[in-house]
């Protein structure tokens, strides 16, 4: 199976999702409405709703998913987008997904309110799923986002952060939502608690791998495929896997970080140091470990099985790795 097939089998579902997102976030205030529409028109990978849909198709054993599953996919994308709005204010990003960020287009106050509005909308739709366990699972994610931001904020430019601390922060900021949304989809399919936990663990490892690859792209990517300047995380003092691995072999990089890139060309110098070291390969190896852990959780596909959704859940890992090729 080619990785593009992953999205082919959910193509119609994502079209419905994109259409529904526009109506779901339609605010009474024109600026909030414009800010919301601006965000969703920028697109994005739609990885989170894709996973919800794939888990639904696989666990239901059918190509058609239920209305609650579809709504959960939409809720996860709204929550994710709300977190990006707040992230962009904190990180002072000018662009996201190749378009101007909400706070740059309007101001910080509007951006914060737009993010709050999206979180509120997601909570309302979540409550209307009438499934208390799903509500509990997904609502905790919003707390995790805040936890992740605080953890990230208090260790900026700290060259002594461990890989374990980085992974924990990455869980709160990224993997938590992916894990919870996969589990929520399994819950809506009325799977056993042990099976629900399996999909949670699958989503957790996929989410961590996704974040690690995203952090590698911050070093090696281009503006065109990132939609934001290269080295943005590094410039903000957010030390990611490739940087942390490189720190073990480069005192020059440690010096630049501890002096918070005081010279204009320090970021470029730091990126080159990471690029030439072993940190990028070690980070990729770490991402692959999490992908293998995720695949190991899933049921083994039958050679003669035509369960495209299961094969797609397996191939998601390969798709994530392909982002750095």
From TrEMBL:
Keywords: Chloroplast, Isoprene biosynthesis, Magnesium, Metal-binding, Plastid, Transferase. GO terms for biological process: isoprenoid biosynthetic process; quinone biosynthetic process. It comes from the Eukaryota. Pfam families: polyprenyl_synt. InterPro entries: Isoprenoid_synthase_dom_sf, Polyprenyl_synt, Polyprenyl_synt_CS. Its cofactor is Mg(2+). GO terms for molecular function: metal ion binding; prenyltransferase activity. Belongs to the FPP/GGPP synthase family. This is Prenyl transferase. It comes from Titanophycus setchellii.
